[in-house]
Amino acid sequence: MATAAAATVPAGGRPCRRVHPRRGPPRLHRLRLPVPAAAAAASPSPPAPSTSATAPLPEGGGRLVAELVGAFNELTERMGEDLATSSSSRLLFRALKLALPALRDVDGGRALARALAVATTLADLQMDAEVISAGILREALDVGAISMRDVKAQIGISTAHLLHESLRLKHAPSKLDVLDDESASALRRFCLSYYDIRAVILELALKLDMMRHLDYVPKYLQLMKSLEVMKIYAPLAHAVGAGNLSLELEDLSFRYLFPHSYDHVDQWLRSQESDCKALINLYKEQLLQALQCDNELKDIVQDISVQGRYKSRFSTMKKLVKDGRKPEEVKDILGLRVILEPRCDGDSSNWGPRACHRTHEIIQALWKEVPGRTKDYITRPKANGYQSLHVAIDVSEPGKMRPLMEIQIRTKEMHRLAVGGEASHSLYKGGLTDPGEAKRLRAIMLAAAELAALRLRDLPGSDSGVGNGKNPAFRQLDKNGDGRISIEELTEVMEDLGAGGEDATELMHLLDANSDGSLSSDEFDSFQRQIELMRSLEDDDDHYRKILKEKLHTIDSAGLIHVYRKELGDKLIVG
Length: 575
Fold this sequence. Notes:
By secondary structure, the protein is of the alpha+beta class. It contains 24 helices and ten strands. The strands form three sheets. Strands 3, 4, 5, 6, 7 and 8 form a six-stranded mixed sheet that branches. Helix 6 packs antiparallel against helix 7 (157-170) and helix 20 (487-496) packs across helix 21. The longest helix has 34 residues, at 259-292. The protein is globular and about 75 Å long. The chain starts with 31 loop residues before the first strand and ends with a helix. Mean pLDDT is 77; it is low at 1-56, 464-469 and 547-554.
């Protein structure tokens, strides 16, 4: 995390508010927005000549409000409508109002960018507003820009509890004298059993952000942190169902721990990547079309899903080391997974296995199956109950050799057990080898979701914002709920962000198209469209833009995080 000195904090623990000069705060984006046509028409003075189609937003407070609204919209969109209740929106808005002024001068604005990147990861993991708010504020706590007293007073006890738990988790590896496999496994079980499970997920998002910025720390710290992530946090991410997050943690750790091996594997995979990824998409569509057109499957299956995957750097290296293979001898770089949902009507007790074996027959008709590589765990399940049918396919063409493609075939229920149930390989990687431990962890996730829903759901008759024509950001600024943002309400937000009334007056003048002294929802919508344009402009930092703009599929559809998210969504609905 960033270690730059924070702004001075007085004895009471609350950061001093300062009115910043017109030069504006460090920017996360290029803040050049088009002037609304109505505002331009209402202005008595003619516009200055310019060759650009855009004009800068007022400096200082105007920029801060734009950053606040932009970040708030980004996070609520990623959360999804069912999780972004009015209570959740208010909590996120308060967290952003506390974090933005606290972090905008820290480390040239990079601390704020990282706080928002962590929050984005948590939103993509479909965490609730309390966890996302804790992710926003953790960076500010680490650099001393805010105190835990500020969090309790302005955000709430629950978010402060999550931050306290995550700070305890941060120091968990120091409990170990030796970081070997046995002690790391014991620590993972301890973390999953004795810490708030949502704090564990928060810490995973923080570790991912740390690994993405590890180039900026000394070499010995790179090695120490990478070993901790490889042994403790990447398996934990597997255990809670954040498979893609775990893969990125593994690859980043591999890069720092074994840079020469990483470069070797990376170069070879890159040489295969463009061709192989195109093949995955092609074969996925071919297989899905063939399955959907099969009359026998139509009679016994109501839904078919085909997923593709490409092997990670770390997983490829493990294959090379374990079996002593050459890179070109790694056979399962390409992979597809077929998930079938049998119909529930009639005599359906045997339709799941029957559908899986029928899918196998269709695959045999499409491609050349490799003899001796088929593993039927449906007919003969593993001891822990794991069921799936694994098939290896040769997709080479005359004169062009390609790696083998592995296809896994299972029902939706088999997949649920394989990913988040007692037969879960991900739980095993997380150190939970006892089926009873897996059941207990699932129960903990469900209980955490229910408690969060009690705090975040909207009560019947409350202003949930449904059907009133106002978007969530507008509702946060319209404090009295009269359908307009007054100059007093805008000034209050400006002061919370460390700016002053003069900035509020200037922004009101720019956005108030009909000059009635307040902002309607339509006028505010125009402002938000300008912010969207701002966010769409090319950013100098391609890596940060990728984090903030791309929707990452970081949770498995049957993993424990998905269990949490579904339970939370169900509990937030009030009958």
